[in-house]
Amino acid sequence: MIAYTDSETVEFPDGARITTTITYYPPPGAPEPAPKPEPGPRVWPLRVGVHDSRPPATVKETFPGVVLTRPFISGVLRGPRSLLQKVEAVCRPSWQAGMVPQYSLKLDVDEVLAGRWDEWIRELGDWHHDQPPSELVIHHEPENDAGLRGRFPEYFNHIAEQFRTANETVPLIYAAMAYQWLPGRTEGTVKGWTSEPEHWQGVEADLHTIDIYSGQSTPVDMILPEHPGWQRWMEYVVAGRPWGVSERGFITDSEHQRRAAAIRREAEWLMSDPTGQRCRRYIFWNTTGTEKNPDIPVDTQFGEPAVRDLVRSLTEQPAQQ
């Protein structure tokens, strides 16, 4: 007897998955069913996070609805070796809190392209099958690294190919740097190394995200669709695909109410605008960062309630593709 089997997997924001399998046994003489269509683009559930200096469990209590954390493996790793211990160390606190780490990993570009990391990348992918959900950012903010200019697509895609050989469920993310996509002071120029956008195209990422700040080089109340760096990145890199934010900060030392108003205005845009609704990741940055800038974390009187409202608004909105 001929049987036809089909299955469908639904992924939830916390990383849980439900797979339904149906087997059909046609009666004698029944026509064969039409060929199964090719799978469409993967639908990503919206995940929201807050990167904070407090433990993940405390962040989860402070901002109900957050799922993502943003841990980093420090520096560029050289000398190919197993990555499991380092990844375990940065992800475990998030997993223990029931959260999903979106962790960053940087490997030496020459060693990657020579194939010297292949074994260890495949080992990492295979290891993730037995771990709670996570997401991998491959070399965040590559536009700030002169050694990757013109080489990043090949570098990213090589790592992705090796990782996906062992694991196709962990999202692989290209997290861009908005500052490098800003237009320059002179018309027709740019601030950094994105004057030739093709150097950053052709990256076979599951998701494209951006690290972006308002304040200092831009007004503190400039929200995403008003930000020139975001606009150029959306035009040249995202080009209509689902997108996300891996770092979102508003920098000010005194304009706390103005910052809070901007956070709420950005939340409204994300919920109501068709482009905003395609945002699949949003991580608010609430630490001093590697620069130890005390003006990045929000104040408790105005900023923290605004971030809490943003998280609630985004996590309660209907799912969008």
Features:
9 helices, alpha/beta, TIM Barrel, 321 residues, eight-stranded parallel β-sheet, 20% strand, single chain, two-stranded antiparallel sheet
Structural write-up:
The structure is a single chain. By secondary structure, the protein is α/β, with parallel strands linked by helices. It has a single domain, classed as Alpha-Beta Barrel (TIM Barrel). The protein has 9 helices and 10 strands. It has an 8-stranded parallel β-sheet.
Give the DSSP E fraction (strand runs of 2 or more residues): 15-25%
Secondary-structure-derived class: alpha/beta
What percentage of residues falls in helices of 4 or more residues? 25-40%
Principal-axes geometry comes out as: globular
How many domain regions?
1
| CATH architecture heading | Alpha-Beta Barrel
Detail the topology: elements first, then pairings.
Elements: E1 4-11, E2 17-24, E3 47-52, H1 56-62, E4 68-69, H2 84-96, E5 100-105, H3 109-113, H4 118-128, E6 135-138, H5 152-166, E7 172-177, E8 207-214, H6 228-238, E9 243-250, H7 256-272, H8 274-277, E10 279-286, H9 303-316
Parallel strand pairs: 3-10, 4-5, 5-6, 6-7, 7-8, 8-9, 9-10
Antiparallel strand pairs: 1-2
Helix pairs in contact: 4-5, 7-9
